[in-house]
Amino acid sequence: MLERLAVQVRQRALGTVLDVQTVTPHMRRITLGGAEVAAFVQGEGVDAPGAWVKLFVPSGEGRAYTLRTVDRAAGTVRIDLVLHGESGDGPASMWAAQARVGDQVSIAGPRNGGFAPPADTRWLLLGGDATALPAIQSIAAALDAAMPVEAYVEVDGAAEQQPISTAADWRTTWLRADPGEPGRSLCQQLLHHPLPPGPGYIWLAGEASAVRELKLYFQEHGIERHRLSAKGYWRTGNADHRD
Ligand SMILES: Cc1cc2nc3c(=O)[nH]c(=O)nc-3n(C[C@H](O)[C@H](O)[C@H](O)COP(=O)(O)OP(=O)(O)OC[C@H]3O[C@@H](n4cnc5c(N)ncnc54)[C@H](O)[C@@H]3O)c2cc1C
To answer: Residue 159: left (phi > 0), alpha (psi -120 to 50), or beta?
Structure first.
């Protein structure tokens, strides 16, 4: 019980931007460090696959971001932020586009990313968009060789594809996003998608309407509640969407 309580403890840490990298044209990687972040990364749950934090940018507004990687020895975290300015900007995306070494931001968390395959899971199906890619990469890094995984990732084009490092028996299918209808390519691919035999686990994240459509589809097709995690990470036209 105490262990479970420890996992739920959330901290807020002030961090300094130590590095800013352009991963792809629409993805910026920020490394945060400093004394409070170094203490934060020693806590429980920070390196759980898909763990996330609320990132408070210098304007004071907070948005949810996955801990892409956590380096306990260095006392740093990396966060990958989608630059979605072309389809409507928000404070986090705007900050990421201009972030500089030395900027001060805060993180609060960690919170669980919902990735909890039951022990008897024999296959994984992962689906998401660019905002889900950091979580998919963190899930990939945590899996062992025995697990067959199919991952479907909707991005803006070939330039947005990224390497996915994993020991698992992994296959990525990159889907091209329709700019007018985010999540449509993912839905087209996964609705009626044949599932492997035996007990499996499905993890979905991305534009909320698309994720909801897929969640309902899989529920109606007999996927049990504990074998499905589906979370809207953002919603078209909504600032600071909460699922
Ligand atoms: C658990 C969780 C983990 C997440 N992890 C990540 C992550 O690692 N990396 C990441 O980039 N995002 C991640 N997200 C999504 C991120 O929180 C949202 O995209 C957030 O809305 C961005 O904040 P903003 O200030 O840029 O835009 P907001 O102020 O929230 O929104 C402003 C406008 O931009 C639109 N918008 C928001 N996001 C997008 C988008 N991706 N594409 C197109 N239009 C958009 C909104 O519809 C709105 O019209 C995660 C979300 C959750 C819930």
So the answer is: alpha
Instruction: Please tell me the distance between residue 8's alpha carbon and the centre of ligand 1 in angstroms.
Output: 24
Q: Of the CATH numbers 3.40.462.10, 2.40.30.10, 3.30.70.2740, 1.25.60.10, which one belongs to the domain with range 2-111?
A: 2.40.30.10
Walk along the chain (243 residues) and give the pLDDT tens digit of each residue.
344 444 456 799 999 999 999 999 999 999 999 999 999 999 999 999 999 999 999 999 999 999 999 999 999 999 999 999 877 789 999 999 999 999 999 999 999 999 999 999 999 999 999 999 999 999 999 999 889 999 999 999 999 999 999 999 999 999 999 989 999 999 999 998 999 999 999 999 999 999 999 999 999 999 999 999 999 999 999 999 988
Task: Check if 81 has its Cβ closer than 6 Å to any atom of ligand 1.
Answer: yes
Q: Which of 231, 72, 19, 50 minimizes the C-alpha distance to 136?
A: 50
Q: Is 148 in the pocket of ligand 1 (CB under 6 A)?
A: no
Q: Of 223, 167, 224, nearest to 195 (Cα)?
A: 223
What are 96's two structure tokens?
């990421």
Q: 123-234 has which CATH code?
A: 3.40.50.80
Q: Which atom of ligand 1 is nearest to the CA of 129?
A: 41
How far does residue 83's CA lie from ligand 1's centre (Å)?
Answer: 9
